[in-house]
Amino acid sequence: MGTTMNRPAPRKSMFDWFGEKIEPGESRNVHLVVGESYSSMTVDIQIHVRRAQEDGPVVFVTGALHGDEINGCGAIRQLIQDDTFQVQRGALVLIPVLNLPAFERHSRYLPDRRDLNRSFPGSVDGSLASRMAFTIFNEIVKRCDYGIDLHTASVRRTNYPTVRGDLTNSEVRRLAEAFGVEIIMNNKGPKNSFRREACNAGCPTIIMEGGEVWKVEPGIVETEVRGIKNVLRELNMLDGEIESPAYQIVIEKSKWIRSERGGFLDFHIKPGDIVKKGQPIITNTTLLGESQDTLYAL
């Protein structure tokens, strides 16, 4: 049986966002100061808050927690720019770029090489990463009931759209299944990661991994926008039917498969293809095109 973690304390008010009053039915851009750069310049993140007239859950959607993973920025910006998109109940907190210093450097990491996504819940007197994490956690996560964090693969890789979450938490499972991609990976996430610590604090959160770094890929953006709307429909924040995939599988364990020899990899399939046992996946060839070995589906 799944479990749902209880929120340890009531969430912070949705009316007051750092001095900005946001009434029911209003949408407003606000910003949150999260730190200071080495040159003593203020570091703030830009936030779009969209409130419905009726009460309901509060959901955050974040992009670029790793600054080079920007497909999520494209999806969130598309929602912000769509004047016809309005939640019917609750509130949506849209943050295209969560990690501004890394985003400006086109980097996964902060200037001190720390990973913000390994720094939560943070501390008020720690490193730049720890202080940023502390402010984000206390001022955003603790205002919200649910979260969606958008990622891509890291450098020189691509990810087929996949949702990851701790499915032992029944509310996380609910979000993961509703998002509507074919593949769900069941894991808690690394220690001190954003989604793991958000869940520990009583804010069920999933991540979606899709595409490559340094790109806004239309197909991935479309999948993310559809998935966000699906989750909002599941939470009764948005009217309409959930768009479900043709199939959905849960992966409990994954592993890297690495080549035993150097060479060129010739792929016989593409991401998302359904394969049968014994089907060739990849052939490793020499520089002159001679076959060395082939990987087959098990």
Automatic annotation (TrEMBL):
Domain Succinylglutamate desuccinylase/Aspartoacylase catalytic: 56-234
First and last residue of the signal peptide: none
Cofactor: Zn(2+)
Gene3D superfamilies: Zn peptidases
This protein's UniProt keywords: Hydrolase, Metal-binding, Zinc
Gene Ontology MF: a single term: hydrolase activity, acting on carbon-nitrogen (but not peptide) bonds, in linear amides
PANTHER family: BLL3975 PROTEIN
Protein name as catalogued: Succinylglutamate desuccinylase/Aspartoacylase catalytic domain-containing protein
Species lineage: Bacteria, Pseudomonadati, Thermodesulfobacteriota, Desulfobulbia, Desulfobulbales
